[in-house]
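Purpose: get a first structural picture of the assembly so the mutagenesis plan has something to point at.
Setup: two entries, given in the order below. No constraints added.
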Amino acid sequence: GNSVTQMEGPVTLSEEAFLTINCTYTATGYPSLFWYVQYPGEGLQLLLKATKADDKGSNKGFEATYRKETTSFHLEKGSVQVSDSAVYFCALRDPSGTYKYIFGTGTRLKVLA
Amino acid sequence: SQTIHQWPATLVQPVGSPLSLECTVEGTSNPNLYWYRQAAGRGLQLLFYSVGIGQISSEVPQNLSASRPQDRQFILSSKKLLLSDSGFYLCAWGVKGHGEYEQYFGPGTRLTVT
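Result (structure tokens, whole complex):
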């Protein structure tokens, strides 16, 4: 079946450090891929998305590239800020037509000043 | 623009009591609707989803149920809560059709069963 695997957290970085959060997926077909962010006590917000191989999603300095050959969608940011502290979820939309979304377990990021 | 509402925002209920959480969506019609649970320190678990009025798909067998009495209303219920039902409940809606459509999440309801 379809699944999403994210790196274990928490990830603790100093301000202005480089961020990578790994995400790999298993799916039949070619799903759309998403990164969501959840700030404390809130719902999830879409951060970025990519719909086909080699697409790069970007938003607020975050980027992720849809890599079909490695079935990956790693999240990166060149210089993190304290305000980026949150939980990040990688997700895919089931391409088989069930309208289901599969989420990873989330990776907590803590950025220290 | 579309808006999704959930209430209540927080809830403390004793074990064995009933539950009703409500979710409504504005600004769109015939959406797909979803209920997720996020237990402390864990990821999102899809509980139910619905592609139309009265159509409910259950992902995980448990003592929860869902109903969709109106196009933009999705209700999560339980007759008797368990301690393990504690968590953060998120409602979401999504566009029909295949491809790149993302989900839009509500603010969530934090449920504590005591």
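The radius of gyration of chain B is 14 Å.
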